[in-house]
Each structure stands twice: as C-alpha cells, then as structure tokens.
Specification:
With 326 residues, this protein is an alpha/beta fold. It contains twelve helices and seven strands. The strands form two sheets. A five-stranded parallel β-sheet has the order 1-2-3-7-6, with helices on both faces. Helix 2 runs parallel beside helix 3, helix 4 packs across helix 10 and helix 5 packs parallel to helix 6. The longest helix has 23 residues.
C-alpha cells in the first residue's frame, strides 16, 4: 500500500494520472478495521482506505484506474461488499447506514463500516447518518480517521470538544478513541464495535487518532500551512515503523526479510501499473449497460440510435435488445 502510494504520486507528477490523495501514515486504520470485519460486511470508504480495500480483495489496479479517470475502477465485484471510492465529503456515511439498515431488516448478522476524516464530522450528512443510525439502532460502525487536518483546517478549530469521539455522545451512541497508528489498538477497538453491531444491532463510533503525512492531494502543498516540526513528530509515529519494530523485538522480522519483501513489492507494483495503463479501451455499450440491470426503453433507444444513425438505418426498425449487466 505504501509503495503504491509512492508510485501513484510519481504517476500524477509525470502526467499519467489525475489528482491523487496519498494514504501515507493512515494505513493502520482501514487495515485493522478490514481485518476484523467479515467478508460479507460492508466496507464503505472515502479515499484513504487503500489498505483495507486491498485486504478485502480489491485488485489494486482498480484504485489507479479510478484516479486515472477510468470509471471501470469503480466497477467492483459485488461479492467483495465494497462501495466505490467516495470523493464528496461525508456522503458515504448515509450509504453505509442504509446498507446496514437493509441487512438488519432482512435479519442478517452483518454490519457496515464507513470511513471519513475529522473534517467530515462538520458535514450535514454526518449528523443525519449518526442521528438515523442511533434512533433506529442500526449496526453501522462510524470510523473517523482523525488525521488532524481537513485540507488546511486544523482539528483544533474543527471541533470544540476535546475529542472527535465525544460528538457521538450527543446521539447516545457508544464511542471510543484509539491510537490510529497502532494496528493492534485499532483491531481491539474494532472488535468491540463490530460485536455491538453484530450481536445487538447497534451503531458504534470509533475515532482513530492518526496523521496525514502527505499533502491533502497532489493538488495541495501542505508546507504552506503546516509546521514541519509537527510533521516530523508524526513521522516518528509512522504505523509501519512501529509494527516493524515490534516484529523485530519478537524475533520474527529482520533486514533480510525486509529486503526480500521490498523486492517483491517493487515487482508487484510494476505489474499493477502495467495492468492499469494497458487495459483495453472500453466498449461504448458500457455507457448504457453499466447503469441498469435492465435497460429502460428510452435508454435502449438511445443506444440503438447511436449504433445505427451513422449508417442511415432507422433505429425503430431494429429489434430492441434488453441487456443485463453482468
């Protein structure tokens, strides 16, 4: 995940990809959460959850395709129970609440987990989703990755409460704050959250305290508004550094294993980029077929008109073909 972050940054800078938001420094949050969730639990992300998505089984090239502007990056295998990347701030929280509500209505023991940043807790969608989930006892985990910055707005003026987690108290919701740079702390807290949802059908709020080590996106320059001393302090708390040190203390990791992994990751990442950049051109029918399970008559007419008008045929004389989205 970290290597793909580095490569994606270079792809954007070389004009081979659009704007990209790095995940650097926040990986433990989505990975720890995805590790706890079942395969059929919903994973409803925004745009800094690559680790969790990879753990769930999403092909990494899907991430690159999305940021390259290829909509097929959001054409996800339904069995993964993953929603497309949500760029608008906060909208995905309502979707997660609806998905979890549907599961509860069907009598299923499934939960949904949605991710967002501290800035999203100032959005109306956040409060609507929280209020709805709390009032109807919906099994959804609201996971706030508090990375201290909503683009250039610091957390200290984003929320007047001492912690973001306290915002959940107003809704009568169980809540916990954890060290979001400690994978084991995230797993511990997520297990409590998921248990409450799965066994008791109730929502839970998790605040993972972390830090955005990179810029907001490749269109941003965080040096204009952040103190380098603050950034350096959080670099020392990098979740990768911490878990690496822990594994070395246990005697299960060393420099030779690190080098072997780095070599494998380098080759794997090159393959991911190659698959993303060399994907075959989309079929123009995809514009129509990927929207509905069964194409409505008016849309089917548009599809047939596009096919036939250029060669002088009357589309009304051509048999309609209802296409089912695979």
């Amino acid at each position: 995940c970290r290597k793909l972050d580095e490569v994606a940054f270079k792809l954007q800078r070389s004009g081979r990809m659009g704007t990209y938001p790095q995940n650097m420094g926040q990986e433990a949050n989505s990975l720890g959460a995805a590790y706890v969730l079942n395969q059929d639990d919903w994973l409803v992300t925004c745009y800094r959850e690559n680790c969790g998505l990879f753990h769930r089984g999403l092909p990494p090239e899907k991430i690159l395709l999305h940021w390259m502007g290829d909509e097929r990056g959001n054409n996800i295998d339904p069995s993964l129970c993953v929603t497309p990347i949500a760029v608008p701030i906060g909208t995905q929280m309502l979707h997660a609440t609806g998905l979890a509500w549907a599961s509860k209505y069907r009598g299923e023991k499934r939960v949904a987990c949605t991710f967002f940043g501290d800035g999203a807790t100032s959005e109306g969608d956040f409060h609507e989703a929280m209020n709805f989930a709390a009032n109807l006892d919906i099994p959804v985990v609201f996971f706030c990755q508090n990375n201290h910055w909503a683009i250039s707005v610091p957390g200290r003026i984003q929320c007047s409460a001492p912690t973001v987690a306290q915002r959940a108290i107003a809704y009568g919701m169980d809540t916990i704050q954890c060290d979001g740079n400690d994978i084991f702390a995230v797993v511990y807290c997520m297990r409590k959250a998921v248990e409450l949802g799965r066994e008791h059908g109730r929502p839970f709020f998790v605040e993972g305290v972390t830090y955005r080590l990179g810029d907001h996106t490749t269109a941003d320059d965080a040096r204009r508004y952040r103190d380098e001393e603050e950034v350096e302090l959080w670099r020392q708390r990098d979740p990768l550094i911490r878990v690496r040190g822990y594994m070395k203390e246990l005697g299960i990791w060393d420099d030779s294993k690190e080098a072997a992994l780095a070599e494998k990751v380098e080759a794997d990442t090159a393959g991911i980029v190659e698959r993303a950049e060399n994907i075959e051109a989309p079929d123009s029918d995809d514009f129509f077929n990927a929207m509905y399970a069964e194409i409505p008559p008016d849309l089917d007419l548009q599809r047939r008109t596009r096919r036939t008008s250029s060669i002088g045929q009357d589309p009304s004389q051509i048999e309609s073909t209802q296409t089912t989205n695979a």
